[in-house]
Amino acid sequence: MNAPSRQSHLLSPEEIEHYHERGYVVPRWRLPAELLQRMRDDLDALLTANAGVSRDSMFCPHIVKGGTQGLQGSNAWLDYARIPEVLDMVGQVIGPDFLLWGTTVFGKPAGTGKRVPWHQDGEYWPIRPLATCSAWIALDDATPENGCLRVIPGSHKGNRLRAHTQKDSPDLVLNQELNADEYDEAEAVDIVLEAGQLSLHDVYLVHGSEPNRSTKRRAGYVCRYMPTSSHFDREYGAQLQQRGGNQVDFAGRALWLMRGRDLCGKNDFTVGH
Ligand SMILES: O=C(O)CCC(=O)C(=O)O
Description:
By secondary structure, this protein is α+β, with helices and mostly antiparallel strands. The chain has helices spanning about 15-20, 35-50, 75-80, 85-95, 235-245, and strands at about 25, 60, 100-105, 115-120, 125-130, 135-140, 150, 165, 175-180, 190, 200, 205-210, 220-225, 230, 255-260. Strands 1, 2, 3, 6, 11, 13 and 15 form a 7-stranded antiparallel sheet that branches. A 4-stranded antiparallel sheet has the order 4-12-7-10, with no helix packed on it.
């Protein structure tokens, strides 16, 4: 009798097409239970070590001294940004040469989580040409009740940054909100995930999430990968940093080559290390 073949983690042609056509995909592959448990334990440690930092968005836990929030990160989160199966899938949608430029834990505490306004990620980022695939890894189950990610399928098409307005509100996790006439919320799709599943989304995709009104936390760890044919422009990053109230450190941000080589030859892998 033939041994049962182990199912490949690689995206199927249909999943790749889904990513390119709709701007996101939920792969069939999921994290092994033991790895998920380690990440959840490390999340507990991260929250304990950073009692003073908002749980709604903890920037760059993969950097030991994580920048402008004063976050105390750890190398464990860098390891979790290097999960080989995830990197393989990212390479399938953005090509074999890419780097990691950021991570965030969106913690969405039970009951009190803030709203993530509708936005396109590109509005915030100093990457030219703009390109990134975000891998959003569910550390808890993510449901409509606890504020799962919501996306507008196909809104990435045309690679157009739509009009946003700055809103500095204590009820919002991010401060750039897409203008209401730039999208139709009736088209939104909920990305419902079990803990250990992930979604991949394109930098131009319109997305957001509702507050967590449930009794269950909804934490996700997102890793940002850009093809090295693009440039992470630190000068422009310093301007964005000022505009955003210095919430994140783009100018001094460390970059990690994940796969292949630096195709544009302008990315600096020494700053921040
Ligand atoms: O976790 C969320 O609710 C928002 C995540 C998000 O905006 C992103 O990963 O780009």
